[in-house]
Design a protein that fits this description.
The chain contains twelve helices and 15 strands. By secondary structure, it is α/β, with parallel strands linked by helices.
């Protein structure tokens, strides 16, 4: 790409917004030219707005820290300054739907980390390695919105980013049932141990909304394009439990699976090791090589050791073995604020650029 696209980050002061800012610092295709947040932060420099709560290990990028924060609701002032936006606002669901549609109607493509529009029938919820074809519904959505350029695309919930990629290459064997328990890091709640000391030496067996998302969102990802909507798949049946655990970053999943046509261990490992998804074929800037990494060691993957695999964009898998109730069980891991949030959205935007949906205005 000869000239970088102008990017805005809406909700730039929160945990995921900060991760967007950090990951985009040296991006070869995208340049952050605008940051927006609540009216409380508007008018301040970005550095002032996040003072005392910058949660990234790297410092605030020099090109961003002196940007003046816009009010996220001042869409007319923002729309002409950017080619597209990433959205990671902390607002009620109904307000997010209104806000994201307002940006799209003002001809600003929105790549969203929020959950509000994930089940909107004509909004594609894309995991780039799995269902890139769902972007084909964007013209239908544009017709509904009355736009030429503007549209909304969302990424899936962080809780399913680890295990759905490991399941996808096995779908040809008739994957019928999935039982999964996720062990989710505190950054998924926008917290650190400093801001949430109650989580030190603790596990909380409830995360609001996570189990429903873990059971329903994969079916939309595996669904198909109907005339004016994405029709969710009927299988596999998924039963999920989601626990908050005392880890800073990294969501782990313990998965048990049953098939209609049971493959061998060797066949499963072969699928995992030889699968080269489309983002990897295209060599997109954020696409990890390889996407899935299988560990032979009995005690891997581990959150602390393996969450940054593929610069935080890869999926770590291990402990594949027979299950006495189901067919097989295994463990997998992803970085929740990189692959599961900002990084996944960035890779989605790269794919949309490669396929001609996002471009210079």
């Amino acid at each position: 790409m000869k000239e970088k696209l102008r990017v805005g980050v809406i909700g730039a002061t929160g945990m995921v917004g900060q991760r967007f800012i950090s990951l985009l610092e040296n991006h070869p295709w995208f340049e952050v030219v605008l940051v927006a947040a609540s009216s409380h932060s508007a008018g301040k420099t970005y550095e002032e707005a996040v003072q005392g709560r910058w949660a990234m290990k790297s410092p605030i990028p020099a090109k961003v820290k002196n940007l003046t924060v816009y009010d996220a609701h001042k869409i007319d002032a923002i729309a002409g300054e950017v080619d597209f936006v990433f959205c990671a606002v902390d607002m009620p669901k109904e307000d997010i739907i209104i806000l994201e549609e307002a940006y799209a109607r003002r001809e600003v493509p929105v790549v969203s980390n929020n959950s509000a529009n994930r089940m909107t029938p004509d909004v594609p919820m894309i995991m780039p390695e799995i269902n890139w074809q769902h972007a084909e519904i964007i013209p239908i959505q544009k017709k509904r919105l009355g736009t030429k350029h503007g549209f909304i695309v969302v990424k899936p919930n962080c809780s399913l980013q680890s295990y759905v990629p490991a399941l996808h290459p096995l779908m040809e064997f008739g994957l019928s049932e999935v039982v999964v328990c996720t062990y989710q890091a505190i950054s998924g709640a926008g917290k650190t141990f400093e801001t949430w000391p109650e989580m030190v030496d603790n596990v909380i067996p409830f995360i609001k909304g996570e189990e429903e998302k873990s059971e329903k969102e994969p079916l939309k990802i595996w669904g198909h394009l109907a005339h004016d909507h994405i029709e969710s798949a009927q299988k596999p049946i998924i039963s999920a439990q989601c626990l908050r655990v005392a880890a800073s970053d990294g969501h782990m999943a313990a998965v048990s699976i049953r098939f209609e046509k049971k493959p061998s261990v060797e066949e499963i490992l072969h699928r995992w090791k030889t699968w080269v998804p489309r983002p990897q074929e295209l060599h997109l800037p954020s696409a990890p090589q390889p996407f899935l990494t299988y560990f032979e060691e009995e005690n891997r993957p581990q959150t602390k050791l393996d969450r940054d695999i593929g610069n935080g964009m890869g999926i770590a898998v291990g402990r594949l073995r027979a299950d006495h109730l189901m067919d097989y069980k295994f463990v997998c891991l992803s970085h929740n604020t990189i692959r599961g949030a900002a990084g996944g959205a960035i890779l989605t935007a790269e794919l949309l650029c490669a396929d001609g949906y996002i471009y210079h205005k």
